[in-house]
Amino acid sequence: MTSKKRIGILTSGGDCAGLNATIRAVVHAATEKGWEVIGIEDGTAGLIDRPMRYKNLTKQMFDTTVMRLGGTILGTTNKGNPFQFPMPDGTLKDRSDEIVAGLKELGIEALIGIGGDGSMAILRKLSDNGKRFNLVCIPKTIDNDVGNTESSVGFDTALYVATEALDRLQPTAASHDRVMILEVMGRDAGNIALSTGIAGGADVILLPEITYSLDKVADKIKRVREEEGRNFALVVVSEAAKTAEGEGLKVEHHGGEKRYGGIGHYLGERLAAKTGCETRVTVLGHVQRGSSPIPSDRVLAAAFGVHAVDLVQQGKFDRMVAWSNRRVIDVPIEEAIASYQAVDVNGPLVHTARLLGICLGD
Ligand code: F6P
User: How much of the chain, in percent, has pLDDT values that exceed 90?
Assistant: First the structure.
C-alpha cells in the first residue's frame, strides 16, 4: 500500500448513462488533490468477496474515450442487499460487517457511492449513519426520483432516448394511420413519461401519479382524428401506470423476481377496441439506460464528481451532492432519501402538459 490517502468509489443499483463520466471526474479531482482512488467492483459485492474485487483507478486510465461510454466500468448490481445477502444454500445472511472490514483493510478513508435512493439508503445503513465509515453520495438514476436534487445523472440521456423514440414513431404512425403507444421506464415515478410526452408531442401521457379513465383516453384519440384532422396519435405510458382496475402490471423473471411491464400492451388492446384504430406498442426498456451520455449528463457528472471530492477533502460526510438553481450543493443523504421525487401533480410540468392539450387521462 502507498502512503497516499485513499478514496473508494463504487456504482450501485441500475446503471445509466454518465456513470463513467462521474467516475472519471472523481478520479481527476482526487488525483489533483493528492488522493489515490480505489474502484470497487459490482457495488458492495466487490467488498464481500475474498479476495476483494477492486482496481486502482488512475487518471491515465480515463483517457477521453471512457467518459463517452455508457454503462459503468466498475460494474454494478441492483440485487444482493448486504443485510439480506442470498447465500448459495438459499438462506439470507447479514454480510454488512464484511463490507466494513473490507473498506478498512483497503485503507479507504472515505467512500463515494454513486447510486439511486435504494443504494444510498443501504450505503448509509452500512456506514451506520456515518459512524462506521465516511460516506459521500452522488445521485444517479434514469427515474429522477431522488429528492432534494433537481436532477440525477442519467435522467437527461434517458429522456433524450425516449424522445428520439417518439420522433421515430411519429412518421411511421402518420404513414400507417396508427395509434402508437410508447411504454417508458421510471419505476414508481412518471418523470420520464411526463417529460418525454411534452418533448415528443404526445397526445396522451399516462402516469402512475394520475388515475386515468380508458374512455377519456379513447375520446381524446377520437378527437385527434375527428376534430384536429390528424390520422395518428402518440401515447406515452409510464411502466408503473396502473390498469383501469388500479393494478400495477409486473412481469415475473427467472427466480421469481417481479419488475414492471405489460401496461403498454394492456392499453394497446383496450384502446384499439374502444377507438377502432390500428394500434402498435413499443416497450423501450433498457435502451433508455445504455446510451453514451448527452452533454448535460456529462456536465452534471463532472460537477458532481468534483464536488464529491471537495466534500471528502473538507471532511464533510454523510452528504449527497445535488443540483439546485444552476449550482452544485450538498444535502444530508438522509433528507434526500426521505423526500422521494415522483411527479408533482400540481407542478409546472403537469400544468404545461394540460395547457398543451395533452390528455393525462383524468
Ligand atoms: O431504476 C432504474 C430502472 O431502470 C427502472 O426505471 C426500471 O423499473 C428498473 O430499473 C429495471 O430494473 P432491471 O434493470 O432490474 O430490469
Answer: 95
Assign 319 to helix, strand or coil. Answer: strand
Q: Is the dihedral of CA 301, 305, 310, 312 positive or negative?
A: positive
Distance CA 72, CA 18 (A): 8
DSSP run (H or E) holding 336: helix 333-338
Distance 186 CA to ligand 1 centre (A): 7
Q: Residue 2's pLDDT is what? A: 58
Alpha helical stretches, state H, 177-316? 191-199, 214-226, 263-275, 295-314
Residue nearest to atom 10 of ligand 1 (CA): 14
Cell, residue 50: 475474498
Query: Is residue 42 within 6 Å of ligand 1 at its C-beta?
Result: no
Rg of the chain (C-alpha set): 22
Domains of the chain: 5-153+293-324 (3.40.50.450), 157-289+345-355 (3.40.50.460)
Cα separation, 40 vs 115, whole angstroms: 13
User: Is 288 within 8 Å of 185 (Cβ atoms)?
Assistant: yes
C-alpha 316: how far from chain center: 26
Q: Give 282-296 pLDDT, tens digit per residue.
A: 999 999 999 999 999
For the whole model, what pTM was predicted? 0.97
